[in-house]
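Thread: Newbie trying to understand structure tokens

Hi all, I'm a second-year student working on a class project, and my supervisor (Dr. K.) asked me to get a predicted structure for one chain before our next meeting. I've only ever worked with sequences, so writing a 3D structure as a token string is new to me. If someone could post the tokens and maybe explain what I'm looking at, I'd be very grateful. Here's the chain:
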Amino acid sequence: MLLLMLLLACYSDESLDVPANPDNPPTSDLDIYIDENFIQEYGMAIRYKFEDRFIDPFQRVAPTALEAVRPMLDFVEDFWIGPYVEVENGETFFRKHVPAEIVFLGGLIFNEDGTVTLGTADAGVQITFTNVNAIDRDNRDWVDLQLQTVYHEFAHIVHQRYKLPQAFETISPNGYTSPGSWFNLPNEEALQRGFVSPYATSSPNEDFAETVAFYLFDTEFISFYLTDEEDCEDTDCTARNEGRELIRQKLSAIEAHYEKFTGVVLADVRAAVQRRL
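---
Reply by user tm_fold:
Sure, no problem. This is what the structure looks like when written as tokens:
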């Protein structure tokens, strides 16, 4: 069986242009809806028709089924746009930072080495949703995949524009993994090191984005990542609690950073997300 691996490709190039084409106005009901509710409203193009540029030459992926596009648009509006628009200062923040291009791919991206890419982004300018054809809002694994992808990538825009919180890299400096080795780290050890996932150990930037994403979508975040286990009787339990203390410090720094530079209270966004789940 293929090893499913979350590979959130985060690039620094922010030179993407989304050309307008007034000579070819949308004609289908779907394209008119996209034009009115995404392009004109937020300056955000929706790419659901497959193009080779969306993947690397040695990758394979299924195109998006037409019948999955509108349900996916509704999902994006409900779970990504909606929570930000609902909270104080959230709509201003969203409109200012929204990527110019959203890409829908029908399946997962299969790589030449046998791994599977679950979501990608050119940080700040493009976010790609995969496995759109399997859309099922009652399937929590599918929902979590989509939300982790979009919240993670949207969080990158914050640190790119406003840097990381002061001294963020020093909270758990010895826990980061060497390049290309994060996927060998078990979830348990990542937690003990003070990280919400193995991928978070790959760099301070990914640590920031993963912590934001998990905080927003994971219903068990507070109980699992922030609340200490009581009456520890072994070293693993103690180490997990020590890791949770580091995560609490990171989240506190992130929340203060968001509020200072964007005016958004991240706890309010989490509450809006959780009401929808």
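A couple of things are worth pointing out once you decode it. The chain is about 50% helix and 10% strand. The CA atoms of residues 101 and 126 lie 5 Å apart. Feel free to ask follow-ups in this thread.
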